[in-house]
Amino acid sequence: MGKNYRSELVGAFGCPIDENPTGVMEEAAFKAKGLDYRYLTIKVNEGDLEAAMKAVRVLHMRGINLTIPHKVEVLRYLDELSEAAELIGAVNMVVNNDGKLWGENTDGKGFLTSLTNEGISVAGKTITVLGAGGAARAISVECALAGAAKVNIANRGRTRGTELALLINERTSAKAEYIPWDNALEVPADTDILVNATSVGLYPNVNDKPDVNYDTIKPNTTVSDVIFNDPHTVFLQEAERRGAKTINGLGMLVNQGAVNFTLWTGVEAPIDIMTQTLKNEFGLT
Ligand code: NDP
Question: How far is the CA of 133 from the centre of ligand 1 (A)?
Fold first, then answer.
């Protein structure tokens, strides 16, 4: 048999995409495992996704990540969905199985692993989620599927918040409640795990924090933030000051990337290398 000069291709479609660091992390992982894979960070404008998804098949790409604004629209171009992706209603990664495109959502799985790595289980717990967008949906659904007893959803926009609560109540065994969020949020007293799944605090607005009455955070609460490019968001600092255990968003990013790596390659992901690569990218020690 002749030598193979063709690399397996994966990557990401999004817009904006230029500042997405996932490729550096995945390429470091491929190298560490001696895999001939390339991760391409590709700008795909809104309205161009259909053509881009055709290209996944035509170019025999092994798979693709989807980010803003394509996570929901991509559902139209897929052949199959995982149970979680179907429930979440959004896909952040696709595997191309000989021309059949299968969609999965690994954001919530990455979040759960980042908790597990800190010795925290969601089983039987009450989770209070700030936000009802893509990340919040993924986190809420995966927590419910992993046995959380209750999911409180606080969101500014009523429609998105009530829709997510309804979905969890109707489609999972967890209970869910929508909490209107007009003024400083009083964290529900039964909260075991509080998650900021809004985009508040995202670079460059690093001094912003969600509108919460931080004195209602109890010291036995675990507080987590999805924001990944700042390990000490103001939100986490406020929680730390109230004695809470805090978990930043880097672990979620690394762990969803690790699940994607394994789904594409069938090989266990080198988590330590992926974590260190991202820390280097963000100038963290
Ligand atoms: P969406 O646009 O889908 O959702 C944004 C959410 O933030 C909505 O619930 C919105 O509320 C809420 N929000 C925005 N501004 C405010 C505000 N000022 N006060 C209160 N709520 C606000 O975004 P995503 O869910 O896709 O992303 C959210 C964050 O998660 C981003 O920062 C993203 O980078 C991060 N993320 C991190 C990942 C990781 O691996 N760590 C993975 C995926 C995402 P409303 O409905 O009222 O507008």
Answer: 6
